[in-house]
Amino acid sequence: MSQIIRIGMDTSKHIFQLHGVDASEQVVLRKRLSRKVMLEFFTKLPATVIVIEACGAAHYLARELGRLGHTVKLIAPQLVKPYVPRNKNDRRDAEGLCEAASRPRMRYVPVKTAEQQAALMLLGVREQLVARRTQLSNTIRGHAAEFGLIAAKGLDKLAAFLATIKQDDRVPALARELFAMLARQYDQVQVELKAVEAKLVAWHRADAMSRRLAQIPGVGPVTAAALVMKAPDPHAFRSGRLFAAWLGLTPKDHSTAGKTRLGKITRAGDERLRQLLVVGATSVVKQAMAKDSGPHWLVELLKRKTPKLAAVALANKMARIAWKLMTTAQEYDSARLNARADQAPAAA
Questions:
Q1: Can you give the pTM of this predicted structure?
Q2: Largest CA distance in the chain
Q3: CA proximity to 37, closest of 4, 67, 53, 14
């Protein structure tokens, strides 16, 4: 068998489909392996390039295969799709991965270490707990409304509301028991959420880059930590604009015949990270509107555009600033930034 130079591997929980080519791009390997024998197969195989779709457990597989001497490359699923032939199946998926990696301009996902993935768990668990807390709050309010009990908005009002329900004789005993059960679940989620947030803040304070990013107006510990965790290799982007485009904060381009037509933001990339940046930018926009102060370009933009569009434009700029700080290890200098006659980003 000819020397294999590249293998595309379609992964799943139990089955792995391989597609390998030699130096002349001729197919020399088509193989279907179970999880039990997959690593054993690659242990005996001479070092080669293995291409995997960046999906669940891909980073783990990349680390394990890397320890065996192979070069592992991860490709985002949307970049593989154009190279997959019609009538999709595992075999064609592996072939599409192998073909995509042959393109000289293909972009790859950096392989995360176990420590980086553990840090990412903090963000994922926190997001899940926040969603669970919201779900419980809405459940309590919804059931209470069936008994004519309405509470003011805000999580800080919920404890007093539950105490009122407990003492209200109009609520049947069975319902009060169920409300008490929901209250215990809510309290437990609050305790767990505070513990996770304490760990996240500790991680943020221990990381120099995260502390630098938190100096940017609108970027707090959670957003700063998310930027560091989700973009472990900022040097993979040639410019801040490409970094903002990766986050989906740049406009869609529909230009043709020499005419520039820019649409809405693409909303590509990590949805949660983009949301954090937009929420932070919204708070800065609100302060600028209330105090009629802030960066000159933002004040002028608010005279022409809605606050929401201004917030997205500011989020775009925050992403570019974050990229600059991550790639140069510089400190955020608001005086120098505000002194420049910056123009509003194209996302506006």
A1: 0.83
A2: 82
A3: 14
